[in-house]
Structures are given as structure tokens and as C-alpha cells.
Amino acid sequence: MKKAFSFVIILQVLFSLSLTAQVRLENLRTENADNPIGLDITHPRFSWQLVSDQRNSKQTAYEIRMGDNPHEMAKNKGTGKVVSDQSLYVPYHGEALKAGKRYYWQVRVWDNAGNVSAWSAPAFFQIGLLTPSDWKAAWIVPGFEEDSLRASPLFRKAFNSAKKIKSATAYITAHGLYEAQINGKRVGDAYLTPGWTSYNKRLQYQAYDVTHLLQEGDNAIGVTLGNGWYRSYIAWSGNHDSYGKDIALLFQLDITYTDGTTKSIVSDESWKSSTGAIRYSEIYHGETIDARLAKKGWATPGYHDNDWSGVKRADFSKSVLVATYNEPVKKHETFQPVKIFKTPKGEQVIDFGQNLVGWVVLKAKGKAGTRINISHAEVLDKDGNFYTENLRIAKAQDNYILNGEGEETFEPHFTWHGFRFIKIEGYPGELKPEDITAVTLYSDMRPTGSFTSSNAMINQLQHNIEWGLRGNFLDVPTDCPQRDERLGWTGDAQVFSRTATFLRDAHNFFAKWLKDVSADQLPDGRIPHVIPNVLGPSAGGSTGWADVSTIVPWNMYLAYGDKRILEDQYASMKAWVDYMKGQSVNDLWNKGFHFGDWLFYSLGDDPDGNSAITNKYLIAQCFYAHSTQLLINTAKVLGKTDDATTYTELLKRIKDAFVKEYLTPNGATMSNTQTSYVLALQFDMLPETLRQQAADRLVENIKRYRNHLTTGFLGTPYLCQVLSRFGHTDIAYTLLLQDTYPSWLYPVKMGATTIWERWDGIKTNGTFQTAGMNSFNHYAYGSIGDWLYRVMVGMDTEEDGSAYKNIRIQPHIGGGFTQAAASYQTLYGKLASGWKIQNHQLIMDVEIPANTTATIYVPATGAEKVMESGKALSALKDIEVVGTEKEQVILKAGSGKYQFSMPWK
After folding, report:
1. Which residues are catalytic?
2. What is the pLDDT averaged over residues 148-157?
3. CA torsion, ordered 776, 777, 778, 782, to nearest 10 deg
4. Taking the model in full, what pTM does it have?
5. With helix as H, strand as E and coil as C, how does 362-398 read?
């Protein structure tokens, strides 16, 4: 009897422990980053994820504690128990934190079942340099006269560390790009640093923990610089030296010894400078490396630099220096050749099978002075020859000169290329697949979203969308990666931004870039066409492009729930809306330059008017309204009630002016194009009584073009969204599955591995669109991804529960698909939704992360027809049936995994 009683006690204890273990914490982040080094704010914000194996799990309270020793956290006084379900962006309220110091924090939470988690493992962050006076270093420039090719300068500093080192942090930035070494080993794994910002107003520095690179005794620092965005050829008309002709370094190494003393090694006149193997480096044109001129061991102790030049101190500003919050550019996937062949012209060409962005790592062995040229291209022409005309004046060529000392390995440092194919000239001997590797480069944003379906071509489209992002999210959202452009075009970024937030955690990436949107905004409120602005003050203010200032901040808020982005961008948003207001007469904005519905369907010889031309001022009025609405939304979130009232009144007048100017009495738009109806409906420009007929007119227009889209950059993102909203999901699927020009699947059918700039970049006869503007890696039309994820699969966030705090699952089934599924790593945890049709049943699998709730729309005529994991809904206490709507049963549910099944025709 005693044994039985003891067994019961043991079971009770185990059960109690299991209850405690049901809630745990993961993914602690400071300012949405994992253990960041170099924050330049003294009151950071903390986020974490609650993980539970129980349904309907919510946080009810939390406690945070913080200190400078991870092993003594229990001694620290924390916040105490704070009754709140907030787990994102919880602000630190203590004393201002100190520059250069590392702090640790951990959290525990209580849930709605009465459980308390264990304390999380400690996370850390380190404060960077906060003021110009924190920089003991001086700007330095080479002490020698640069040659005409502007060979990359080398900077070197030797020093001795006589004590045992406890910790060391290096702070580095440059005018140009830099790569740093300590004792011959690379500092960090980031490339193209310090990244691209509006350098004259915001220059980022990076902070690195380099403790492991230093040694007691002799040490050496080596830094190589490249022209980069600072002074490379950028944009057109021979534009270069956009930010200055100089090339300069700012370097500070702060060391703490085990005895508590400190020392700083800084850039100053004691450094030496020279040049080495990199003889030429330009973003558009490529890099030349002469291995014969390499200075072996130059970044290691003991190297003799007696013949090096000195350096000069430069009086450049430190007040523009800011910490880095966005993810750095890093190396990612590698590709081996899928084919090495000779073209009809006799060229040696290699196919990597994927249009990618990065560079090639080459191994070679030959005589000293042997020159190898590598050229890059996205496509072959119709005869199978290497094609580079669409690169315009960009040479996109890397040149390597051998030193003749055995096998040598080459790769660029301060350039990149967009390519699938390369042409090699001058290679000594037989080129083997193992001698050449393509390496991708892009910003190291966390992957967050996945999508798959029963249609192989749609899956390839998804692949192309993803690779369009990888190729063009390279510190800034570029339009294309291959030709003489590679600029942060605002229109491209805004149309793709919501899709981007699904594929990757783009929070920090866009938050950084939006600060440059504000920095480069013109005094009258116009937003330049490209950010950072290298086109000058006259290039700005185009509708659909400048609206990036309102659209992207709001999309970031919806995806990530970060009010600070709205706070930071509010003045910019308001200035842009006020600019449009100032340009309007009687609330009608019908003046100025606009790109319009860029690259819409048009015909060169168009005798019967089939080109889908949408009036640019009609488009402008629609975006004027949209930006005003987003400003109103933002004002409400930020509690700016007076602004919300003022701009609500303005919005009504804007829409009234649109109806008066651009709508016939019977409800047709003046342009009568797909884009005109799409924008008018998406932005609610029409009275409610005229909306459905306008949607029907849109369908008739689509049918007129034999079920093809005719939209350009501004109409395409919303086309399928509008069709589904107004009951025409069948037509949305028809457009999605169309595989003849113009359509999303036409490039897929033509072998595309990325999204094209033009619907017909390669024509059916194998010839190309005009070479002056024909990129094969342009992500804008990849915005269809947003419809795939949020409508087809139906996985969305409610605006009153941004960051997926309040979730909506509402799939739209059709198109002959038998399956579609997506998953998404929200800031709260994994969200997943998918549906499949089998054996005359529809099965929906749904996963909701902890600390969130969801409204789920199940396609069924009645709740009695729906089963969840084999049980009737009426038998479940953790799912609430709240009603029906248009043959959908509406359910409320908390976190957990669910499988719904119902009869299907």
C-alpha cells in the first residue's frame, strides 16, 4: 500500500514538473537582434517568444532582470512581476547605459494556466560609441599619391599588448568600403561594410568582438579600403565621387585587460599606408587583382613596413556616425557549375543554373603574369552565345593576374555581380568544376516564410520571388544587381515591401533604409526617386515612388508591430502628404513628373489602342489618397488625434475630387484600364455603391485581353487582391496560372530563375526586349507573393493586432490546386496554414503561436459540417464558433495546432 501511495506521489510531482515545463522562452532579442554589439541607444527594448505545448497559451505577466555578469544574474534586482501580455519591444527603464559596456538580461513569464517559466538563458547586448567624444580615433587617409586607377590602399598598425586580455572591441568605419584583419585573420564575416547610407548625414560604423583575434605580446592590424558607393561610378553620365574624392579610415580598438586596466589602439599618424594586390575596384566594372603585388603577411606581427608611406590625419565629421542596426551583407549559398561549354562563338562559358548575386571564387595555377578575365551575364542569346548588352556600360568583369607560385585562389572584395553565366578568358590549362564556385552575397536577414503548392510552376514562381529578394536586398533594396544602376529605387521597394516581410525578417533592414528616406527627403517634402539619393535634388516627387515614405513604414508596422518605426518616420510621412496637398488645386493633384504605371502592357504599333495606358494624374490622385489614409492610420496609432481629424477631412475631399475628375456617371474610370480600376478599388476611391460594378468592369477588361494582365509596377501588386476582395477569386487564379505573355508564369515557362523587370524580357522567338532596360533580376512583379501568402493560403495579421498578435486565417481555394501551404516565423513564433483536397474532403492545418489569437474562416456552410482532429466543434471548449459569412464558418481560437476537415465537392 505504501509503495502504491509513493508511486502516486511521484506521479503527482512529475505531473507538476511537466506543467512547469509546458511554458518556456526562446529567441531573446534586443532591438530585434540576437546579442547585438554596438547599440548606440541607452534604453534598448527587449523581445522574447513564449513556447508552450498547450492550446490557448498566453502570457499574463513577465519579469526581467539585467546585469553585467551572466553568472550572477540572481543577485540583480529586476523589474519584479509586471502584469502584461507584452513580449515585444519591452523597454528598459533603468539608468542610462554606458558606452562600450556589455550587459546581460533574462526573463521569465507567467501564463494564463498559472504556470511560471524558468528563467531564460541570459542574452546580451553591448553599447557602442554614443557621442563624437567617445571616438578617440582620428580619420586617416593614405600618405601617398593615388594612381589613376585608384588602387585599394592598405593601412597597417603594429602594437604590443603586454598584459593578458579580458575583452576587446573594434569599432570601424570608412569613406569607401573596408575589410579588416588582426594578426592576419579577418575581422568578422560581413562584406561591403560599412554599407550604404546617406553618408554626409548618416555614416554607419560596425562593432566587433575581437578578443579571440588578439594575443599577449605583438599584434598587428591591417585594413584594406575600396571605393564602394562612396566614390565609385554610380548611376549614369559618368557620375562618380558622389560623396567625396577621398578614401579614409576610422578605427578604434578598445581593450580591457584582466587586471581591469584599459587601452585603446586608434587610427592616427602612427599608422602606415601602401597598396597591394587590388589594383582597381569599381562596383559596376569589377575588380583587378595582381597577385604579384600582394604584400605577404602585411597584417601580421613582424612584417617589415619600412618602405611604406605614412598616413595623414583628416578632419572629417564624427557627428554623422551612427551604429549599425541592419543585418550585414554576408556570404550564403554556393553553386558549382552545372555545365562548362563552348558557345557557337567559341567562348568558354560556365552555367551555374541560377541567376544569383555575388561573385566567383576561382582556383588557378600558371606562370607569373598570366591574366584571367571573368565576365558575368544573366542570359545567353538565342544562338547560345554570351550576352552582356543589357548590362549597358557596366563591364562586370574581374581580372586576375597570377604570381606563378603554385595554386592560387582569387575572389573580389569590393564589387559584386548579378549573373548565371560567366565567360572565362585566359585560363591556363583545363578548367574543372572543382576550380570554380559561385558565392551569393546578400543582407543576412533571418528567413521567415515558406510557401508550397500542388502546382510545380507556381512553386518555381515562389522560388523566383525568393531569389529576386536575395539578389536585390544587398544593404539597400536595389532595383537590379547587374547593370550600371543597382540603386535603391523607391517604387520597387514599396510595391514589394509586404512580400519581403513574409520571406525574411526585414524589420531592421527597412528601418535603417527608411532613416535615409528621411535624411534625403527634399526640403519641400518630395522623396527622391532613389535612396540614398545620388541623382540630385531635381529627381523626386513621383507618385507611387515617393509614397514609399508612407507605405513602407505602415507595412513594417503591420508585420512587426514596432511603433518606433512610425514615430521615426512620422515627420517624413506628413511632409510628403503636405507636399501633395500643396501641389493640388481644389484637392486635385494633377501636375508634376510621374513615372506612372511603369512598364505596363504596351504595343509599339498600336492602331486600335490596345496599350493599357493609365492617366498618370489619375494614379497620382489614388496614391495621394492612399498616403493620406496611411498618415491617418499612423496618427491614430501614435495618439495624434488632431492630425487624424485634419487629414480625415482632407481625405474626403481628395476622394470627392477623384470622383468628379476621373469617374463617369455610370461608374467607369476615365482611363478604363486594369490599373485604373485596381487602384480605385484598392484605395477605396469610389462610393460603396459603385465599387462592385467597377470590379466587374475590371473583370471584363481582363477578358478583353484574353485573360491576361496589362498592369505595370503600380497596378500589379493589388490586382489579385482586388479581384478576391470583390468576389472574383476565380479570375485571380486565371491570371495567376496564365503562362503566355504578359503573365507571371511566362518568364517561368521561358526558364527564369528570378523575377524579370519586363513581362517579356525574352520574347517567344528568343530575342530580347530593348537592351537599355531589360534586367532579369528585378523583384517588383514578385509582389504577387503577397496574394499567395495572405489570400490563397489566407495567413494575415489584423491591423488592430499588428505583428500577428491578432491573426486572420482565411484561405481562398480554387484554380484547380489540390494543396497549398505556408509557414511564417512571426515575432511571437511559428504561424502555419495550409489546405489540401483529398477523398472529397477539405483538410485545413493551422498552427497559431503562443501569446496570440486567431480568427479562422473555414470554407463550410455550417459548423456542424466541420470536424477538428476528428471531433465535432460543438464538443470542443477551446474553439469558439462566432458565426457564418458567405459559406464560411468563423471560429476564434488561441495558440496551438489544429486540423479542420469538412466535405468538399
Report:
1. 485, 757
2. 98
3. 100
4. 0.96
5. EEECCCCCCEEEEEEECEECCCCCEECHHHCCCCCEE
